[in-house]
Write a structure and sequence with these properties.
Elements: E1 29-30, H1 32-40, E2 49-52, E3 60-61, E4 65-66, E5 76-77, E6 81-84, E7 98-106, E8 120-124, E9 136-139, E10 163-167, E11 177-178, E12 189-191, H2 199-207, E13 212-216, E14 220-226, E15 230-231, E16 242-243, H3 246-257, E17 260-267, H4 271-281, E18 287-291, H5 302-309, E19 312-317, E20 319-320, E21 324-330, E22 336-341, H6 345-364, E23 373-378, E24 382-383, E25 389-397, E26 402-405, H7 414-419, E27 422-426, E28 432-433, E29 437-443
Parallel strand pairs: 1-19, 7-8, 14-17, 14-18, 15-16, 18-22, 20-25
Antiparallel strand pairs: 2-13, 3-13, 4-12, 5-11, 6-8, 6-9, 7-10, 19-21, 21-22, 23-29, 24-28, 25-26, 25-27, 27-29
């Protein structure tokens, strides 16, 4: 069994008319931009759904959200203290305080409220509704707290009928009152469509009384690694075996991009087993990402299985690392999108950043589909193969605008990859860059 669909014809073979068969056409080499454009042209934001607030974290709104009421919904106190009439405190001083009769106690959530008349006050807690007749709140620190012994020490005595409180300074009208609608007015737009929902946005939605919200959901991404040589981390590694790192790298990358990601352990090089795993996962996948089995190895069964579904194209790209790529849908034009990545760890990760991450961001309805790219000065000289866009791992310093290569160009160097925070791009038509050249840098931690 082979992983290649290419065939060769002897140059001396003759057709029925005696003419020699033409030499087979060389497989097309796609540029990075062509492949990316082809991939993105086939996906879009997922259909909007209504979700509970906490389930919508990380999603983007599919609607403008209008406030159904005022926030706060009523005038309330911003301090522990006493609700008063301003005229009753106009001449208050520490030497000659205004002595007011306490007519009630108002806690947060109180329903029935006492009326504050001339010469009266109501003991009030933070967040409690301001009672009728009151025009301001005197913080407890501006009073004796009902003790009759001077300035209160941030505390108030329990309110009793006909208790007196001494206010030690004037209180301006509206002081320490949160007015109804001062934060959000009824009917106003509080969040725009396209807004990414984080903790503060969810808090706002809850504050205006929304229990659900219409969003573009997070895509469900199934990640699996293929290869009979793979064992799970923590298991004994036998001869010729290696721990499966790709599925962890790519699952974490999918989560970081905003997806709900499901990791599937290494699948051996067995067509029946791979097909069974795929059939089991299709029901919960908006996108499938695989690594391994896309080259021309004799035991690469990924092509065999995926091509049997139809609609999956395996191609070669003008890039290093990551030349072999697979893309299509399982189940026809309306099926689940599939991106089949190379098996080498660096190739798999760079392919994810270039192609899979933009797909996930597109499905999310995000405006920032691509990683940011900056220009930087590279002190080191660089070499690159002709006709390939090379992506080198690097360390970018925003402080001085420089970038240093990390490790070599080989696609198995996961130690160097873990130290990198960017990709240095060398264009297809460039084979050498002298030291101190400017290069494009793809930022990986932004």
């Amino acid at each position: 069994m082979t992983g290649s669909t290419e065939h060769t014809t002897s140059p001396t073979a003759a057709c029925c008319d005696g003419a020699a068969d033409p030499a087979p056409a060389a497989p097309r080499l796609w540029t990075v931009d062509e492949h990316l454009a082809d991939v993105l042209s086939s996906v879009g934001p997922l259909p909007a759904i209504e979700l509970q607030l906490l389930d919508s974290r990380g999603c983007r709104l599919d609607e403008d959200v209008l406030a159904g009421g005022d926030l706060p919904p009523f005038d309330n106190s911003s301090m522990d203290g006493y609700a008063v009439r301003t005229a009753d405190t106009a001449r208050a001083t520490a030497e000659y305080p205004s002595v007011l009769v306490v007519v009630g106690d108002i806690a947060a959530g109180a329903g029935e409220l006492p009326r504050v008349g001339p010469g009266q006050a109501a003991r009030i807690m933070t967040g409690a509704p301001v009672p009728p007749g009151a025009e301001a709140v005197a913080p407890v620190e501006w009073t004796d707290g009902g003790t009759g012994t001077g300035v209160a020490a941030d505390a108030m005595t329990a309110a009793v009928e006909d208790e007196e409180v001494r206010v030690l300074r004037p209180v301006a009208e509206g002081a320490h009152i949160r007015r109804r609608g001062s934060d959000v007015a009824a009917g106003s737009r509080v969040l725009e469509a396209g807004t990414r929902l984080g903790p503060t946005q969810l808090g706002l939605l809850a504050a205006i009384g929304r229990a659900t919200v219409k969003v573009c959901p997070r895509p469900r991404v199934v990640v699996l690694s293929t290869g009979s040589e793979l064992v799970q981390p923590g298991e004994t590694v036998g001869p010729g075996q290696i721990p499966d790192s790709n599925s962890f790298t790519l699952t974490a990358a999918a989560q970081e991009a905003g997806a709900i990601a499901y990791r599937v352990g290494g699948v051996p090089d067995d067509a029946a087993r791979l097909r069974a795993v795929l059939e089991d996962q299709l029901g919960r996948a908006d996108l499938i990402v695989t690594s391994g089995g896309v080259s021309v190895g004799a035991y690469d069964v990924v092509k065999e299985v995926f091509e049997s579904y139809g609609g999956v194209d395996f191609r070669r790209l003008k890039m290093q690392p990551g030349k072999p790529q697979g893309f299509g849908r399982i189940g026809g034009a309306a099926g689940v999108p599939l991106l089949a990545l190379p098996g080498n760890p660096v190739s798999a990760y760079i392919s994810f950043e270039l192609f899979v991450r933009p797909v996930i961001r597109t499905m999310l309805g995000a405006a920032d589909v691509h990683r940011p790219v900056v220009r930087a000065l590279c002190p080191a000289a660089l070499r690159s193969p002709a006709g390939r866009r090379q992506f080198l791992r690097g360390r970018y310093s925003a402080a001085d605008g420089t970038v240093e290569p990390v490790g070599g160009a080989e696609s198995h160097l996961v130690g160097a990859l873990a130290r990198a925070n960017c990709l240095i791009t060398v264009p297809e038509d460039v084979t050498e860059l002298p030291a101190s050249s400017e290069v494009d840098v793809v930022l990986l931690d932004s």
